[in-house]
Amino acid sequence: MTKKSRFLQTPIEPFAVEPGLSADQLLARMERISFQGRNLATAHRIWQKMLQDDVTIFLGMAGALSAGGLRLIVAHLIRERYVDCLVSTGANLYHDLHETRGQRHYVGSPHADDAALAEDRIDRVYDTYASEEEFISNDNWIAEFACTLEARPYTTRELLHLLGGHLWTTTGRDGILTAAFRANVPIFCPAIADSSIGMGLSQARQKKAGAGYIDIIGDIVESANLVIRRPRTASVVLGGGTPKNFINQATVQAEFYSDAVGGHRYALQIVTDVPHFGGASGSSLEEAQSWGKLATDSDKVSVQADATIALPLLATALAASARPFLAARRKPTFTLAGRVMTVDGLTVPHERFEEVNESAV
Amino acid sequence: MPHRAPGSPGKSRQPFLSGKPIRYYRPKGSQDIRQLIDEGFQAFNAGRLSEAAQIFAEKMLDPASDTTIGLTMAGALTPAGLGGCVIELMDRGLVDFVISTGANLYHDLHYALNFTLRRGSPFLNDVELYEDGVIRIYDVLFPATVLLETDAYIRAFLERSGLNEPIASSEFHYRLGLDLLERYPGCEEHSVVARAARAGVPVYTSSPGDSSIGMNVAYHELMNGSRLMIDPNKDVNEICAIVLAGRKNGCVILGGGSPKNFYLQAQPTLWEVYGIPKGGNDFFIQITTDQVVWGGLSGATPAEAVSWGKVNPGVLPDTVVAYCDSTIAFAREKLKVKT
After folding, report:
1. Which residues contact B278 (CB under 8 A, 6 or more apart)?
2. Could you state, in order of their start, the residue ranges of all structural domains in chain A?
3. B11, B218, B247, B334 - which has most CB atoms within 10 Å?
4. Is A136's Cβ below 8 Å from some Cβ in B?
5. What mean pLDDT is predicted for residues B132-149?
6. Looking at the partner chain, which of B4, B45, B295 has a beta carbon nearest the beta carbon of A276?
7. Which residues contact A323 (CB under 8 A, 6 or more apart)?
């Protein structure tokens, strides 16, 4: 036993407490501890690598992160272009809109008497409360906005860009939708019907025939074409859910049309779900490799953690460590206001894949 | 503004102990359950459970394997009524020794002494329960007097047993079981401890101080000057001897916890301490709700155990972990074995 095993190269460095450590210093120390702490530190490192490489970065967002106080972190990630495209659940965008319109979520308790809350018309999201009457005013606001649109299909990318623009001109406040509008970052919402935004759109249709017409398949075509235009991609997934699948299927769909697409080059997920129940939210990144969603040589890490713990740490650390990389990034540029999206000045056909391949040859 | 029904009226105080009594369920097995496990349980954790039943019934019980089988129990299984499954296993010679948390054996005594635990709800107000003298284990309820009277029985047993020296937990539980059989005839139908004494199945606990049994042994020493103590060294050596004597070794691990480690450490004790290479476990079945990602032992995989020499590296196909609550998985697996 005198020869040192090749497995024993890097010792664990017990974490030394020191007052006033910054988040990036904290994560640097956590690289040498274990379990999910080390995974979070690895996530920090991988995100930095993404920013230094020439990749389009997708951010997926599921779980009640906006209601849970993380919406300005996501807005910051969009504004500073830590990410290039957001895929979100409808609820996260809705709760973002709720606060951008000047309303709040409130600190509550997970042990609340729900019957008493119902009497006061308070809705509970685990330990967070919000006013149902304010929600109803949001729904009406969304419906009124949707009635101003043309009676034609809109992709969620186009609709959410216009919604962000309307929100910005009426409120001038920072948020996910407004930051994405101002930074020209596309947002896709594959399950938009499954949220109060969808409910608001359905109200619009009551008021005006043909309003609230969403072209959800157009989203698939556009997201796949986005990958075809820029085949090197990365995915950052918070929570899993439909956004995780949507980001992954974009590369699978794109692969049918372009040999340059080979799955995400980087993948980072922060999830509380686990692989052994078989669902997609908890599925391992290795499993995604079998589908070609991830390149087999991709840099990847799965952090098993609640995003309310992991994301503030990670985003604060990146704010200190990633600044030089952000300035040097070759970011994709989009036009999002029209029916046809462009990436780096080239149109992304919203109906056919072939056109883009012809122009790519 | 849409309207909806007003909230429900304030809750009235409920009679907490009105639920059905919890009895030890005794699985009998049937063709239906066999078909469910073989044909119905096909993927994910149902699939793992099906594999576990197959490994147990076809490999561990194969006479050619001559497997010495250890069962470990952690988590509140006897309060949930799963003691009946353990009784059936012992009755049919499907388990050779048991390692349990102290709590599972302590709560088993309630059934032996004919005290009643009842079905309840996990959503009750615990302050009200406290005021009413009702104890809660998730959704199992019983009066605090059950604890007091069970403790009184243990202390009376300790005094009349005359035990006055360090002994193995297996001997302690055997003597306890004999006392139950003598004083409460028929209790072996409702008690793992009593049935184990009758069936000659050694029962160990890896943490003798960490339960109400240990609390009363401590009282006996302090107040009566007794020299009785549970000697963990005897347990470690006895379990090593049982594992060493087995031609093949296999285990069914429920939950994890310290019983899981206490069972698995026997192999390293043999090769690392005594210099006897036994080769690791040949079969490994675990049913747990813990996960591998937090780094703890309860959720650790059989593959990780291979690196420690706890599991034979050649037999990983004969290991399985089903991520499931034992209250769901355990009774069902035993049912399959019965048929």
Report:
1. B243, B244, B249, B267, B270, B271
2. 39-100+151-192+215-360
3. B334
4. yes
5. 96
6. B45
7. none
Region class of A190: left (phi > 0), else alpha (psi between -120 and 50), else beta: alpha
**What local confidence, expressed as pLDDT, does residue A102 receive?**
98
Alpha helices in chain B (DSSP H): 31-35, 44-54, 83-91, 102-112, 126-131, 144-161, 169-183, 192-199, 212-224, 232-245, 257-264, 266-268, 302-307, 326-338
Q: What are B258-313's pLDDT values in tens digits? A: 999 999 999 999 999 999 999 999 999 999 999 998 999 999 999 999 999 999 99
Is residue A265 classed as helix, strand or coil in its secondary structure? strand
Q: What's phi and psi for A150, nearest 5 deg?
A: -70, 155
pLDDT at B335: 58
Instruction: Count other Cβ atoms within 10 Å, centred on residue A326.
Output: 14
Indicate whether A355 pLDDT > 70. no
Residues of A in contact with B8 (CB under 8 A): 115
How confident is the model at residue B337, as a pLDDT? 59
Split at pLDDT 50, 70, 90, the class of B334 is: low
In this predicted structure, what is the pLDDT of residue B63?
A: 94
Reported confidence tier of residue B5, pLDDT bands at 50, 70, 90: very low
Q: What is the ipTM of this complex?
A: 0.80
Q: For residue B293, give the nearest of A118, A136, A304 by CB distance.
A: A304
Which amino acid is residue A199, in one-letter code? M
Contact B295 A115 (CB under 8 A): no
- Give the SS3 label for residue A185: coil
pLDDT at B2: 45
Q: Is the pLDDT of residue B332 over 70?
A: no
Q: Tell me, yes or no, if B161 comes closer than 8 A to chain A by beta carbon.
A: no
Residue in this structure with the two tokens 């074409």, named with its chain if needed:
A225
Domain A39-100+151-192+215-360 has CATH 3.40.910.10: yes
B197: CATH? 3.40.910.10
Q: Are B272 and B49 in contact (CB under 8 A)?
A: no
**Gap between the Cα atoms of B94 and A315, Å rounded:** 55
Of residues A268, A271, A220, the one with CA closest to residue A65? A271
- State the Cα–Cα distance between residues B274 and B268, nearest whole angstrom: 9
**Residue type for B247, please?**
R
Give the pairing of strands B67-73 and B248-254.
parallel
- Structural domains of chain B, count: 1
Structural domain of residue B191, as residue ranges? 16-338
Task: Say if CB B254 and CB B325 are below 8 A apart.
Answer: no
Mean pLDDT of B22-45: 92
